[in-house]
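Action item from last meeting closed. Structure (360 res):
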């Protein structure tokens, strides 16, 4: 049986206040200050993962730092906390650990963490990208958009993830625009894609004008701050934000009820999985990064799989094949780390249809 752990952390202070009554009565900075010095903890066991070929079980282990702290505290301190949490996973018998949410982007995206642990590490980014693309296709169907003929933009196309995403999209779509800072790098990538797929890809360094005419946006830039604001998007647009820190401002979902923002796909887990912990997803489902960790454990692939900033088409294809073998599949969506239901998507589509006539 495969053995794994998955690292989680509080997204913000509200995660503390739901669990600890006293935290409701303190300023947010005090709450973060208190838990900054807390040790990592085991949250729960994960049981019941089973396919026709293998089984796995594991545990959630929690780093006490919030998303903001992981990004703003000195990198050395954040990495020390993450490594401590990984050591706890080792003690629980895990042979591979997945890095969840912002623990996967601190420092060098898992490489230093892997070098300081005696177990394998993955960020889960390969399957995250795979399910982001699959989830975006599903979202396009629900929003009434023909994915293969839509105007699709990749923001941050010349980065490691952006290159892989662009090359995969170019296999199927007709209208692809790649956006990045360097026009020469864009042209070089466009030439590679032309030789691989025969698709002549559009390139642009003007993010705002590209966004305004795009039906679907895949955001994978390495920007420190949000680069997609409410006024940038056309009614009915779909934005899949894979970047961490996020490319999409939270103001988009607060001010635009006619735009669909997703983080990626919600994944069905094979067997009768019980996480013994409510992280806001429907029963029997998980995030893709979590699923990648599970399936590598089922394969007993106890090796560093997706770490560092590089990501290849071959990795994504391989993890997709492993997912199909064991029965992992995309079943829904999430937005800003929370599950997104069909009723909400339907209401976005209705709002979009009302506003499209006035868009120019």
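Sequence:
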């Amino acid at each position: 049986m495969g053995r794994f752990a998955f690292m989680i952390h509080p997204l913000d202070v509200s995660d503390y206040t739901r669990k600890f009554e006293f935290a409701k009565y303190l300023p947010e900075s005090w709450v973060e200050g208190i838990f900054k010095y807390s040790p990592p903890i085991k949250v729960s066991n994960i049981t019941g993962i089973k396919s026709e070929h293998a089984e796995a079980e594991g545990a959630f282990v929690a780093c006490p730092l919030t998303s903001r702290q992981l990004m703003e505290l000195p990198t050395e301190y954040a990495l020390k906390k993450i490594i401590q949490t990984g050591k706890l996973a080792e003690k629980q018998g895990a042979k591979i650990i997945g890095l969840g949410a912002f623990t996967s982007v601190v420092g060098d995206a898992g490489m230093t963490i892997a070098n300081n642990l005696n177990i394998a590490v993955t960020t889960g980014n390969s399957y995250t990208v795979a399910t982001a693309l699959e989830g975006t296709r599903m979202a396009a169907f629900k929003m009434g958009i023909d994915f293969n003929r839509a105007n699709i933009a990749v923001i941050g196309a010349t980065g490691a993830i952006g290159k892989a995403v662009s090359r995969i999209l170019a296999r199927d779509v007709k209208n692809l625009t790649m956006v990045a800072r360097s026009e020469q790098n864009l042209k070089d990538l466009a030439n590679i894609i032309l030789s691989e797929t025969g698709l002549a890809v559009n390139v642009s360094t003007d993010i705002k004008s590209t966004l305004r005419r795009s039906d679907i946006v895949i955001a994978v830039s390495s920007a420190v701050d949000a680069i997609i604001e409410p006024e940038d998007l056309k009614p009915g647009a779909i934005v899949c934000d894979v970047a961490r820190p996020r490319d999409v401002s939270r103001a988009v979902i607060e001010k635009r009820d006619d735009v669909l923002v997703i983080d990626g796909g919600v994944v069905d887990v094979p067997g009768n999985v019980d996480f013994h912990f409510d992280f806001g997803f429907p029963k029997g489902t998980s995030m893709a990064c979590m699923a990648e960790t599970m399936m590598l454990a089922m394969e007993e692939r106890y090796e560093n799989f997706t770490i560092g900033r590089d990501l290849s088409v071959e990795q994504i294809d391989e993890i997709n094949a492993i997912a199909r073998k064991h029965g992992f599949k995309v079943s829904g969506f999430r937005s800003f780390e929370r599950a997104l239901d069909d009723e909400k998507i339907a209401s976005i589509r209705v709002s979009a249809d009302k506003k499209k006539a006035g868009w120019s």
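Note appended to the action item: The longest strand covers residues 41-50.
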